[in-house]
Amino acid sequence: MHRRRLRPAVLTLAVIASLLASGTVTAPPAVAAPAGGKKVIANLFEWNWPSVASECASTLGPKGYGYVQVSPPQEHVRGNQWWVAYQPVSYRIESRKGTRAQFESMVDGCHAAGVKVIVDAVVNHMSGQANGGTGWAGSSYQHHAYPGIYQGQDFHYCGRNGNNDIVDYHDRYEVQNCELVNLADLRTESDYVRSRLAAYLNDLLSLGVDGFRLDASKHMPAADVAAIRARLSRPAYLVQEVIHGAGEPITPTEYTGNGDVHEFRYGKDLARVFRSERLAYLRNFGEGWGHLPSNVSSVFVDNHDTQRDDGGVLTYRDRGIYALANAFMLAWPYGSPTVMSSYTFSGRDAGPPSDGNNKTLSTTCYSGWECEHRWPVIANMVGFRNATEGAGVSNWYDNGYQHIAFSRTGRGFITINDEDFAVNGRSYHTGLPAGRYCDVIHGTFAGGTCTGPVITVDANGWFAANVPAHDAIAIHLSARLP
Ligand code: LM2
Ligand code: CA
Fold first, then answer.
1. Can you tell me the distance from the alpha carbon of 406 to that of 416, in angstroms, rounded to the nearest whole number?
2. Where along the chain do the CATH 3.20.20.80 domains lie?
3. Top CATH class, 19-388
4. I need a surface site. Which of 122, 235, 323, 324 has the fewest CB within 10 A?
């Protein structure tokens, strides 16, 4: 029986904990996937460069994030909407988020903190302004003319739908050769365009960047992406944005030869499970649900688009349940997880906190910015992910409904109770070595001590504990008390 459960705004321990808050990319074989023990990506959406740099040092490095993903760094059209970043007018590293010098020192600072940098690279298109104008850094442009960079012959004019726009996602040609929301579509099949795009990406690599999220990848043939990739001056992590659409001819699988691909079904399916189905169904989440192969799959509970445009996904607004969904993602060995970090918004187009010139202000967590990556439940589960990397799942338990538990064999254990009632008086089989472990859902482990409850695992690998409604307990080897 499926229960469609209403979610009252209950304050679970996970929420309270949240409110209290204050690898390397190896040279790839054919596919560049995040490698090493620290694979979790924090997406600091629309943060300016000085704020990213200080966050790497203060939080991302110490908490074990392996990567930071930053918003598009190139010059863009003027305006205060967040999406101006997705309308390039030149490849100067000069944007509302900061200067080239600030960008470079951010990359260096993040590296010093042990955090690699992934850049959101907009390469399918240029601007979508009908009348042209002057970009953020002063470059003048027309819809199909970017002096010194691209001219009329470098763009597609598909001649469909009266305005060159994409209308029919069931038509492969149209999706890749027409304009996505009027954005001037580059002829990515041309040698010149490929070399210009590669020059931009190589410039970023020269500044130390470690990888790219390739925006709008579905709108470029996989072979064009491969050709651009082949021109990179050194190996880089690639994750391609190819949104799965039921019945569409262009599929995420076509792109897996180039690198990772965003698995958009993951966040949608996870939200449905948490909102209206059963956590028990998560037993084979991932490939068992028809998602991409784990080793090429990039997953997230929400991203900057889905948190605005996909009504059903879980976002920061869901508070405790959002934290639990991220805890599951970080505990479950499927794909490469990205933790979203948002600014607070109500209107769909509203830009980040900015000054009168639309320059993005420095981040102030919990005031204008949500900083989900700092929520203790989420940040501490990054340590769980790192401690359990490579370990399989064992000791799966579910009650048939909203209470689940599993081990990451020999390294960690989590139980999530999303029932509306507490589960009391149970014991859990973890298979972990006997010892005292910090419950990282409710406490932070540092300097050999735990700020929250301590879980005692006995010689047979069992512990007894009560789990409140809409809450969890998680323990792992790297948060074990001496
Ligand atoms: C992406 N992935 O493929 C980004 O993740 C997504 O955020 C981008 O759309 C999109 N592709 C293009 O890079 C965003 C935003 C759109 C916005 C575009 C361009 O979601 O709303 O479009 O960026 O800035 C806006 C207006 C739209 C207008 C267009 C061109 O909303 O109405 O189209 O600018 O002026 C006439
Ligand atoms: Ca295209």
1. 9
2. 19-388
3. alpha beta
4. 235
Asked if the model's pLDDT at residue 69 lies above 70, the reply is yes
Predicted confidence (pLDDT) per residue in 265-297, tens digit? 999 999 999 999 999 999 999 999 999 999 999
Residues linked to residue 416 through DSSP beta bridges, in sequence order: 404, 472
Residues carrying CATH 2.60.40.1180, the chain: 393-479
Q: Which of 17-26, 148-157, 288-297, 311-320 has the lowest mean pLDDT?
A: 17-26
Token pair in block for residue 72: 């598009």
Which mutation among 69, 82, 86, 96 tests ligand 1's pocket best, with the greatest number of atoms within 8 A of CB? Answer: 86
Closest ligand to C-alpha of residue 122 is 1
Question: 138-176 burial, b if ≥16 CB within 10 A, otherwise e?
Answer: ebebbbbbbeebbeeebbbebebeeebbbeeeebeebbb
Joined together, the tokens standing for residue 440 give 């990282």
* Residues in the 5 Å CB sphere of ion ligand 2: 124, 176, 185, 219
Cβ of 165 below 6 Å from ligand 1: no
Determine the atom of ligand 1 nearest the C-alpha atom of 84: 24
Residue 116: which residues within 8 A CB-CB, separation 6 or more?
23, 24, 25, 66, 67, 68, 110, 210, 211, 237
Query: DSSP state, 417?
Result: E
Task: Say if ligand 1 is within 6 A of residue 264 CB.
Answer: no
- Please work out whether the CB of residue 254 comes within 6 Å of at least one atom of ligand 1: no
Tell the residue nearest (CA) to atom 32 of ligand 1.
Answer: 181
Closest residue by Cα to atom 35, ligand 1, is: 128
Question: b/e per residue, 294-319, with b = 16+ CB within 10 A?
Answer: eebbbbbbbbbebbbebeebbbbebb
